[in-house]
Each structure stands twice: as structure tokens, then as C-alpha cells.
Amino acid sequence: MASRRLGIIMHGVTGRMGMNQHLIRSILAIRDEGGVTLSNGDTVMPDPLLVGRNEEKLSSLAEAHGVERWTTDVDAALANDDDVFFDSATTNLRAGLLIRAMEAGKHVYCEKPTAESLDEALELVAVADRTGVKSGVVQDKLFLPGLVKLRRLVDGGFFGRILSVRGEFGYWVFEGDRQPAQRPSWNYRKADSGGIILDMLPHWRYVLDNVIAPVKSVSCLGATHILERWDEAGERYVADADDAAYATFELEGGIIAHINSSWCTRVRRDDLVTFHVDGTNGSAVAGLTSCLCQPREATPKPVWNPDEPQPIDFFEDWIEVADDSNFDNGFKAEWEMFIRHIVEDSPFHWDLREGAKGVQLAEAGIQSWRERRWVDLEPLAL
User: Fold this and answer.
1) pLDDT in tens, 185-197
2) What local confidence, expressed as pLDDT, does residue 326 receive?
């Protein structure tokens, strides 16, 4: 069996998500396991080149994890013989970097949103088509054990006719004065492409499209609840980007989905994100790792009586969906699929076209908020 090297330029991996999920738990984990195995038994060994602006952070990260290559020179990185360019840095720089990479003949893989606007996202698709490179967009929540189990219930017809979806996402992101914030300050500034609508509605597009049913239209109300925060240097700044979004979606088949997204909520639910699906024959609640279901036959029969304590424990009659698979890290699983797609042209669905759909929904959500109305999603000319 043969082994080959795959050079991967990794831009933006000094940030929390890029470092933890993409570099350490994906690419370096694949390296430590001996590479990605192809269908013919050959292996592909990823060889990362870390790229960023902060020389000290890059050198420390490389030394800590045994990565031999790093640089602050993006142009030099794009001029080398590496095969793939990956980006997980700030949204407002992404489209330009991806275009430069594709023009240099690199396959591209990136976080979402792929761009700040739908026009930019569609331009990325056009450049990929013109240059003939392959593309991939991170759709990590599709690989979460909880959502994999939920998809099994959908595919198996467990719900009967699906009626509705209720999603809750978020947690309290500290302002940065008394306790350090868990997210970068750019997330809360409009000028830096911050805002939870642009950040999270692309996620809800691929989750709803791929697990439940395609999204047809959206009604969204955004809010900026926390008006000032403190940045990484301890300096106070005006937080003018939306930090919460309350969105209702109409899906194909008459299904209604409502998802609250907030960085200003204290969690009292099963997980940081939960999806409650109701159908005529049963219901289910999925989190990051677990999925509970309640078939029609096990549904209790409550009676409204505000004068007496509720006799039913509504948490009791739910069944854990079997955890009968060996679930790997979701980011790593998609990286392995993309690497196989690059090397042996195996199927990979989540390209820049799919990424554009997420940007379309975010843009429609912002339009809905601004104009205070429902916005339909037109089919994209892809």
C-alpha cells in the first residue's frame, strides 16, 4: 500500500475554533492515526502549513504540536506546491482569500459563512467553476451524534408527518469586564462582520435542509441586548452587532421551524443546542450527543388543572435513541471526507454551492428584520 502527502495551508488556526477543532482534533489527529485511508487501501498524510498574522502565536502553536511549517506570508504560502487552502479566520476577509487561493490553483475548504453577502458567495462558486478546483464548506453539526440519530428517525419514518421543529441555541457570553469572554470581540462589531444572524443562520440552513426539509422562507427578529463589551486587551467597546436572533422558518411540506439563537441566555436545557421535532406519530429531542424520542403509544395524557401540582413527570416517558455507532469528532469526520474527495474524487456534497445557501438565508434573515416581514428564498442560479 502506498502513502502520499497532502499539503494543507491552514489560515486562521490561532483562533479558538481553528486551533481546537480543525488543527488539533482534526488534521493532527488524522496525522497521529496514520493518515486517511482511501478505498484502495492507500493512505493520505496531511501536512499542515500554519498561516496567520501573529508570528509569536504561530511559532508557539507549531512547537507545541510538532508542526514543522508556519509562515506569516500568505502570498508565499499560496505560491507553494500545497494542494489545499483552508480558512477559519474572520468572515470579512474570507471571500477575498478564497478567491486568491482558487486563482492560485488550490482546492479550498472553509468555515461558514463563506462570504458577507450572497453576491460574494455566488462569485466564489463562479470562480471555483472557472478554475476547476474542488471546494468544501464546514457543515459540522450534521456529524453530531445527536443529529445523526435524529436523521435516522426521520429517514425511518418514526415521526409520521412532521409538524414542527423548535430549536434553542446559545449560552451567556461574558462581556469581558469581570470574566474573559469566550468568543472573540469581532463577533460583536458590525464593522468586523459580527452578528449572530450571519454566524448562525447558515448553520440552521444546512441542518434544516439536510435533516428535516428544505427551507422556503424566513421571518427573523434580531436584537443587540448587550450594548458594551470588553475586548481581548481589556478595552471597552460598543457592541453594535446582533447578539440574539429569533427566527421562524417555513419548510417544504408545511413544516414550521422556530429557532432561537442567543449569546445572552443562561442555559437550562439538556444541551447548548437542542432540536425538538414533533410529528403525528412521535416526537424527539436531539442535542449535541444524545437524542430522546417519545412514540405516540408512550405519550402521556395531561389534563390542564392550574389548581393542583402537575402529577406527570414529563421527562420520564422519553426513550434514548440507541448509541450504536462509533461517533468520531464531527469536524474530523468531514475533513476525512473532503480529503478523500480531493484525492480520489469520492462524493462530497457540501461545497461552495451549499455554502451560498447558508449566506442566502442569513441575508434573508437580516432583510426580514430590517423590513419586518417574511422573506421567501428564491432558487439560486448555481
Assistant:
1) 999 999 999 999 9
2) 83
How high is the mean pLDDT of the chain?
96
Listed in sequence order, the DSSP H helices in the chain are 16-17, 29-32, 55-65, 74-78, 91-103, 118-131, 145-155, 196-207, 330-344, 352-371
Residue 353 grid cell? 454551492
Q: Are strands 135-137 and 107-110 parallel, antiparallel or unpaired?
A: parallel
Report the C-alpha gap between 68 and 65 in whole angstroms. 9
Nearest-angstrom CA–CA distance, 94 and 105: 17
Strand partners, 51: 11, 71
| Apex 81 CA angle, 79 and 82, nearest 5 | 100
Q: How far apart are CA 94 and CA 185, in angstroms?
A: 17
User: How far apart, in Å, are the Cα atoms of 35 and each of 56, 162, 171, 328, 356?
Assistant: 28, 41, 36, 15, 30
Compute the distance between CA of residue 334 and CA of residue 351 in angstroms, rounded to an integer: 12
Going by C-beta distance under 8 Å and a sequence separation of 6 or more, which residues neighbour residue 204? 167, 215, 247, 249, 257, 259, 261, 361
* 137: β partners: 110
Positions in the chain short of pLDDT 70? 382
63 contacts: CB under 8 Å, gap ≥ 6: none
Question: Please, what are the domains in the chain?
Answer: 3-140+330-351 (3.40.50.720), 141-327+360-371 (3.30.360.10)
